[in-house]
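Shipment paperwork, digital attachment
Item: protein structure file
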Amino acid sequence: MRVLVRIASWLYALAVYGFIFLPVVVLVLFSLQATSFPIPPFTGPSLRWYDAVLSDTRLTSALVNSLLVAVLSSLAAVTLGFLSAWGFARFTLPGSALLRGLITLPLTVSYLIIGMGLLVLFNWAGVPKSLLAAGIGHVVINLPLCFAIIYSQMGDHQINIERAARDLGAPEWKVLLLITVPVMAPAIFAGFFLSMTFSWDEFVISFLLTRFDTTLPVEIWNLLRSGLNPKTNAIGSLVFAVSIVLVVLFELTLLRRKPA
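Attachment content:
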């Protein structure tokens, strides 16, 4: 009976991981296809389509735009999230529970609704579709995540350290920059890398709020409109590789917090 349970467990695990990773394996495999059609049988390996992607100015520009939007919007989101978390954790505010709920509310709202709302707001305010508008949208969706991560890690032991620094004569800005930020660095970096991962892959808001300068997911969608293209496999593999790097950095940051 134990043998049957163990076999069933392994089969279940293989089915789950196969369901998750098989599409990625197929994507990466056919990104190395030598022919012009990403269909079986596999002919390769070849870096032909990676070279085509890197020599395509539209795709490389979209890649740079995605990195720029991801980095800057994540910096803004983690900064605002940290300051919000610090304010709620260190000061007694009227209706703080309601305000915390409002900050995290975008986590429960569809990106499509948020994107449409921002589109209407920017049209009313006269803000044109651009990478700046998309970056603001990414801050809106990532700020609640950064706030939740950082706020959950603010404990009483940090209050005692900050109080000791004030007793020694440190002004509030020095306490914040030299005590609170270093102590909270793992949570801050975790929020930053997770925000970058979401911003890097985000499509709906970028599609709604950009026009001429687009991000990489939007450019991939433009390619897919004309049918299967081997370059889309190569781009998808590059996007997946960057996402994996960001997730690994996020995990390493979390591991640094665990006591030895």
